[in-house]
Write a structure and sequence with these properties.
alpha/beta, 16% helix
């Protein structure tokens, strides 16, 4: 059984996808993860998302076979707006919390991190800060994972092309296709 569960953090709601079943399906279900969403599954689930400057963080516990992912758009909330999973500094902690609730042991988690590209070739200082958005997104993801002592098994960050990620929640297997 899979369902969408609205979550509140601060004053803004965001969507967390949860999946679970009493008996695993013969074929893993597939979920498309949009920017600003978190998906956690205690049963085999294929989580698919497309990234450019956004970053996708995939986490799984190889023993409990609980896994999940988040797809975030911006590195950090400025503090003036409500907390949202659109921000990496909100999305990753929400993902960690939901994984623990689903039965994952945080000390066994493994990570794969993707995205953070620079798809537009703009040169104007008005168009780009000193550090491009994708780079800042990637830095936040890596920093939070290191802070929580979660080993990053694969990191495919940066570049000038988008990526389509297909992540298997129970095994951590991924397929990455450049777009």
């Amino acid at each position: 059984m899979s369902f969408l569960l609205p979550q509140r953090m601060g004053s803004e709601a965001f969507t967390v996808l949860l999946a679970g079943a009493s008996t695993p399906p013969a074929v893993p279900q597939t979920r498309y993860l949009h920017a600003g969403q978190v998906c956690v599954s205690a049963s085999p689930q294929t989580i698919v998302f497309i990234l450019g400057s956004c970053v996708g963080v995939c986490l799984w516990d190889p023993v409990s076979k609980v896994g999940g992912a988040t797809h975030f758009l911006l590195p950090e909330s400025d503090g003036r707006s409500a907390s949202s999973a659109r921000y990496g500094n909100v999305a990753i902690p929400v993902l960690l919390h939901k994984l623990a609730e689903a039965g994952a042991h945080l000390d066994r988690l493994r990570a794969k991190v993707f995205g953070g590209g620079r798809l537009l070739n703009l040169t104007s200082s008005e168009a780009w800060n000193a550090s491009p958005l994708g780079t800042r997104n990637a830095e936040v993801a890596v920093e939070i994972l290191r802070k929580h002592h979660i080993p990053i098994e694969i990191s495919e960050l940066g570049g000038t092309r988008g990526k389509r990620i297909s992540f298997q929640s129970d095994t951590g297997e991924t397929i990455v296709k450049e777009l």
